[in-house]
Design goal:
Layout (H helix, E strand, L loop, with lengths): L1 E7 L3 H12 L6 E5 L11 H4 L17 H6 L2 E3 L8 H5 L1 H17 L12 H13 L3 E3 L3 E3 L2 H17 L3 E4 L2 E8 L2 E9 L2 E12 L6 H11 L3 E2 L2 E11 H10 L4 E4 L8 E7 L3 E6 L5 E6 L8 E11 L7 H15 L5 E4 H6 L5 H5 L11 E2 L8 H17 L9 E9 L3 E2 L12 E3 L10 H15 L1
Parallel strand pairs: 1-2, 1-9, 2-6, 9-21, 17-18
Antiparallel strand pairs: 3-5, 4-12, 7-8, 8-9, 10-20, 11-16, 11-19, 12-13, 13-16, 14-15, 17-19
Helix pairs in contact: 1-7, 1-14, 5-14, 6-13
Length: about 450
């Protein structure tokens, strides 16, 4: 098969690359290769079984058209201060302009007009004052919340738009390898079962998301794609009653807090806050079960969940940060017999495991019913655990009750980002004809920034 552009991965970065090319009037032929299913065929059996059944050959929550984040929650961060380091590559003003432009596209395809986290300056000032007192930084970030169920409708409209404009969507095929000729990329080799075919293209765009981070890391080493060791985030999903989070949920919707707690002073941050939300499980290809969270527009729980992530940056000689985080996750899965582990914060401070009976007697009832009560500290690295404990206690100054005995911590929450691929402002790598976008590139973290990076790529290719 021959195309002008082949895009590997139908997540936000890949989708918006194609959309912007179309909007710019490009006549170039485009193919998007996605190993998962179209949005209308993505189904998580847990809605029926009430427990994760470890779908094969991939998890429907993490894989398929619109990728992982869009399907699980759908929150669009509208500030360039949030979502990764892409602004350092192209400049903050340009990144913000791209976000504003991309947001308009989301609105055209059905996103909610309402923006969370704006319009309460006096109350925000009071929350910021408490954050400063606790040694934390509060990042203002307007949020457009699509909602899990609404996001599926929106992304189906985007999928149909691509089809209607002659983009070839190739589902159920996995990209195995780049086709190389010296330092030039000529396309990709893809596989479906025993079938193998090549797609030759002038431009190859790799946009495989966090799910494809380790695969891209291997390609970088194999083909001499210039890169540098990236960051991995290791942490927990924290869940407490809505009453505890009531003020920040109402005023900010998502309280983005950053701290550098003693004694290690690693960066620790909150991420993906879900008022009235639900904790969920995702499964990766190597049977790794990780925790996430999402929230619907209409269906609400009694709890709010938010991720607390500790960033790890490694120096020489170590260059396998993704493998390191996976080992942490595997050890936690082992303790939970392949499931997600949950523990009360007070039990961590008391040096004891949590028992199922204690969970059933608590004010905070887990929204992930098949999580296994146990001891997170038996698997979490000491440095990360101390950072997380101290950060949660600092957040308690901002949100009284956050560090209560009954607050639940789920593990492992892992965010894999590929070793950062070195690119210029044209989003070109040192390999001619190859471009890397979104979370898999190491430059973005989240839906909106990945989408905006795709828009810029679309303009360059158009």
């Amino acid at each position: 098969m021959k195309k002008d552009v082949v895009i590997v991965g139908a997540g936000p970065a890949g989708i918006f690359t194609a959309i912007e090319m179309i909007r710019r009037g490009s006549r170039k032929s485009i193919a998007i290769v996605e190993k998962g299913q179209p949005i209308e065929k993505r189904r998580c059996p847990k809605a029926v079984t009430n427990k994760c059944v470890s779908c094969r050959p991939y998890c429907h929550i993490t894989t398929g058209f619109s990728g992982a984040g869009a399907f699980s929650d759908g929150k669009l961060s509208l500030s360039c201060e949030v979502g990764g380091d892409f602004p350092t590559l192209i400049g903050a003003d340009k990144a913000q302009d791209l976000i504003d432009y991309t947001d308009k596209i989301y609105l055209e395809f059905g996103a909610d007009n309402h923006v969370e986290g704006v319009g309460n300056p006096d109350e925000v000032r009071e929350i910021r004052k408490r954050a400063i007192k606790a040694g934390l930084k509060l990042v203002d970030c307007p949020i457009r919340h699509l909602g899990t169920e609404k996001a599926q409708t929106l992304y189906l409209a985007l999928e149909n738009y691509l089809r209607d404009n002659d983009v070839e969507l190739i589902f159920g095929w996995e990209c195995e390898e780049l086709i190389m000729d010296g330092e030039t990329c000529l396309g990709v080799s893809i596989r479906k079962g025993e079938q193998v075919q090549e797609i030759r293209a002038e431009h190859t765009v790799v946009a495989t998301g966090r799910r494809g981070a380790d695969w891209l890391e291997r390609l970088c080493a194999e083909h001499g794609i210039a890169h540098q060791p990236g960051t991995v985030d290791i942490g927990v999903r924290v869940e407490c009653r809505n009453e505890v989070m009531e003020e920040v949920n109402r005023v900010l919707y998502e309280s983005k807090l950053i701290g550098y707690p003693k004694p290690f002073k690693n960066k620790v941050r909150t991420f993906c806050q879900n008022p009235g939300g639900f904790v969920s499980q995702e499964n990766y290809d190597n049977d790794l079960a990780v925790v996430n969270g999402h929230s619907y527009k209409d269906l609400k729980s009694d709890n709010t969940n938010v991720s607390v992530l500790c960033s790890h940056n490694f120096s020489v000689p170590f260059n396998q940060p993704i493998a390191y985080a996976q080992k942490v996750g595997e050890l936690t899965n082992m303790l939970a017999n392949g499931h997600i582990l949950v523990q009360r914060f007070g039990d961590i401070l008391d040096g004891k495991r949590t028992w199922q009976k204690e969970l059933s007697q608590s004010n905070v009832r887990p929204t992930l019913p098949d999580a296994v009560a146990g001891d997170i500290t038996a698997a979490m690295p000491y440095r990360a655990m101390i950072n997380i404990i101290n950060f949660i206690q600092a957040v308690d100054v901002v949100v009284p009750g956050f560090a209560s005995t009954e607050t639940l911590l789920y593990s492992p929450e892992l965010k894999f980002y590929s070793n950062r691929v070195k690119m210029d402002e044209e989003l070109s790598t040192n390999v001619h004809g190859l471009h890397c976008l979104g979370d898999s590139s190491g430059w973005t973290r989240g839906l909106m920034m990945a989408s905006a990076m795709g828009v810029l790529m679309g303009r360059k290719l158009a």
